[in-house]
Amino acid sequence: MKGLIVDNTKPDQPRLTLAEVPQPTIGEGELLVRVKISGLNRADLALTSDHYAPNTVAGSELAGEIVEVGPGCTGFSVGDRIMAVSRGSHAEFANVDHRIAVKLPDGIDWQAAASLPAWFMTAHDALITQGKLRTGETVLIQGVTSGVGQAAAQLAKLSGAKTVIGVARSQDKLDQLTGTEVDHTFVMKDGWSEAVREATGGQGVDLVIDMVGGGALTGNLHSLAICGRIVAVGRLGGASDTLDIGMLAFKRAQITGVTFRTRNMEEKAAIARAFASDVLPLVVEGKLKPRIDRVVPLAEAGLAQELMRHNKHFGKVLLVIA
Predict the structure, then answer these.
(1) If you average pLDDT over every residue of the chain, what do you get?
(2) How far apart (Å, rounded) are the C-alpha atoms in residues 154 and 139?
């Protein structure tokens, strides 16, 4: 079968390369899925050896049709349409643990299905499960123009947030957001956190969902209300920063870090179930819609990588597999 493998023979120039690879064979508890569309994510560009072994199939998000059900699987049949956050998605076939597979409801097409799992599972977990958003609260999305940032903004609005504030580095991208996502936007430059406080009447925000990481922590803390919460999701600005412990103590703030990489399968399954329960109905009802930048065939994945590498996209980039 055809698939995109990780070529990191040149550590300074990692790439996804189209190749012929063996079709996977399923094991206990697995589904064999014919992939229709997979989502290309920024994590796919971090093709270092601690993410992927050389010559392994890349990708972490898919929508497709079950062609074989392995032993020990329950609740699924051949022909079912599913979506999942699962490794090896950039190929014609992929194995998916049945515990993290989510059936597609009627009314959700392949493109929407492939656009949802990575961004919206992450956003829902950060905002609702870890961030404990309550009706009437004010939310700041740091890095709001990123994929998960856009998802978090939509979900915050639909989950009862009183005010959603978006911060990003690009005014052009901020201008593309709509009133269904944000109430106020600010460019991340000198004074941005003070502008956020002014927008909240000096009180600060109740919850920060941070996609930036390095360079944002001090501003996030300054923007925070007393007893506010920060959920650290992304590291677009780097993986390290300096923590003002005095400000942390003064704000009596809580900081929670999240990642999929250290979660076990049962924890991932819980995230998938919460997503299916809380997010998918909003998509079916037309209240939530993932933003898609473009859809390209698998053979043009190299162009799609360069597009993402240079931040020339705004929304999900999808690869058509079959």
Answers:
(1) 93
(2) 11
